[in-house]
Each structure stands twice: as C-alpha cells, then as structure tokens.
Amino acid sequence: MFGIGMPELLLILAVALVVFGPKKLPDLARSLGRAINEFKKATREFKDTMDIENDVKEIKKPFDDINAELKKNLNEIPHKPLHTDDIINRAPAATKISAKEDRAIPETSDAAEKKTDA
Question: Quick one: CA torsion of 51, 53, 56, 62, rounded to 10 degrees?
Fold first, then answer.
C-alpha cells in the first residue's frame, strides 16, 4: 500500500488524532472512505467505457475494410457517361404519357351525376 509500513501508518494516525481530535476523527475517516469508494467507482466506469470503445472499434474494422474494398472496386470499373437521349429511351413504357392524356381532365362524381339527372 504505497510503501507505507505499520510504523509509518501508526505515526500518521497519531498525528491525525492530535490535529483533528477524537470527536472529528471518525467523521473524517468515514468521509475519506466514501471519497475512495467514489474514486474507485469513477475509475471502474471509465475503464468500462474504454472497453466499450475498443469493442466498437473491433466491430467497425471489418465494415471499414469492406467499404474500402468496395470503393476500390468501383473506381476500377470504367464508366460510360449516359446522354439524355439514352436515358429517355431507357424509361419504362408505362411512364411515357402522350400529350393527349396529359391534357385530359377526369370527371368528378358530381359532374357524372348531373349528366345522368338531366
């Protein structure tokens, strides 16, 4: 324990007894014990946090490797730029709308009822 032997510990306790007195010494020891426990708790939590960060780094490494390999492979593939005409010609047939269909306005149910009433 920090290289303090029994004689040194007794000397420290004797000095503390003289300085603080017999009434305050138990309260002082209790406060010191609580402070040491809080310090141990904080140290343990910090260590756990560091362990979690190391675990996250270990889990993240394979994903980073895959990401780097994918980027490398994508950079090796030659890209041919598409022209606007190629994009229009590749569009599905269902999305092409004629000018006639674009201008047509569907009838509402109210308008259809008025025609049937008349």
Answer: -100
Torsional class of 105: left (φ above 0), alpha (ψ -120 to 50), beta (otherwise): beta
**Beta carbons of 16 and 28 less than 8 angstroms apart:** yes
- Looking up tokens 């306005």 gives 105
Q: Which amino acid is at 102?
A: D
39 token code pair = 């310090």
Task: pLDDT tens for the chain, 118 residues: list them.
Answer: 467 888 888 898 889 889 988 889 889 889 989 999 999 999 999 988 888 888 888 888 889 999 999 888 888 777 666 566 656 666 565 555 555 555 555 555 555 555 555 5
Instruction: Check: pTM over 0.70? Answer yes or no.
Output: no
As a whole number of angstroms, the distance between CA 54 and CA 77 comes to 35
d(CA 6, CA 17): 16
Which tokens is 85 given?
A: 């005409």
